[in-house]
Amino acid sequence: MSRAPAQLPLGVGLRDDATFDSFLPAANASLVDRLSHQFDAGGEPFLYLWGAPGSGRSHLLQAACHAASDRDLRALYLPLRDLGHFPPLMLEDVERLDLVAIDDIDSVIGRRRWEEGLFHAFNRLRDAGKRLVVSAAAAPRQLPVKLPDLASRLTWGVTFHLQRLDDGERLQALQLRARVRGMQLPDEVARYILHRGPRRLDELFEELAVLDSASLSAQRKLTIPFVKQALGW
């Protein structure tokens, strides 16, 4: 009897708001287009994304999984920064899935069992004609990979460097995320949050989630005085 795909540890899942609709492409439009059309005829089997922390890598990998699920395809999201302390047994049978999204692969590079597990998983996915998306903080050739065959596999696909948003685009991204949440975020309030809040966009979005909850609870619109009160600024 055939085995089902290995089960992930409890607690690992996709964020509901990590979709393509809530991501501002800006200079990364070509990457978003490749990801969102990966299952179309001629779609790229393997995409490698790299960029600084907070650049949107995890968001895009989860968005790709959501898009696959919307097509009734089976997708698996593996955040290795959280799962890397487990043995790589979760890579068994991944070729039975339609898409595997491996986040923060650099967090397990240099560990023999993980490098071997990834090498064999990549081969099985390729042979089965499935899709793979990988993210890291550095380009493939900059990773300190010990297994030469894995280093070769990491260069198989199309590599994209996630570009940082400028200040105007960060404002657009913040307001886009607010609209997805059903929030009205006036320009002056958004600018205040960008000026006073953390630099990383993912941390700004966490502050936005706090504001969403606080405004719903207090039945208040987002104003600068309310933001100061809700976030303790």
Outline the structure in words.
This protein has 233 residues and is of the alpha/beta class. It folds into 2 domains: 20-161, P-loop containing nucleotide triphosphate hydrolases (Rossmann fold); 167-231, Helicase, Ruva Protein, domain 3. It has helices at 29-36, 57-70, 80-83, 112-127, 148-153, 167-180, 187-196, 201-218, 224-231, and strands spanning 46-50, 75-79, 99-103, 131-136, 158-161. The chain has a 5-stranded parallel sheet, sandwiched between helices. The model is unreliable at 1-11 (pLDDT under 50). InterPro entries: DnaA_dom, Hda, Hda_lid, P-loop_NTPase. Pfam families: Bac_DnaA (PF00308), Hda_lid (PF22688).
The residue ranges in which pLDDT falls below 50 over 5 or more consecutive positions are 1-11
Q: In which order are the strands of the major sheet placed?
A: 2-3-4-1-5
Instruction: Please provide the count of β strands.
Output: 5
Proportion in β-strands: 5-15%
- Quick one: biggest sheet? 5 strands, parallel
Number of structural units classed as domains: 2
What do we call the CATH topology of the largest domain? Answer: Rossmann fold
**What is the radius of gyration?**
19 Å
Oligomer: single chain
Query: Averaging pLDDT over every residue, what do you get?
Result: 92
How helical, in percent, are the residues? 40-55%
| Through-space gap between termini | 60 Å
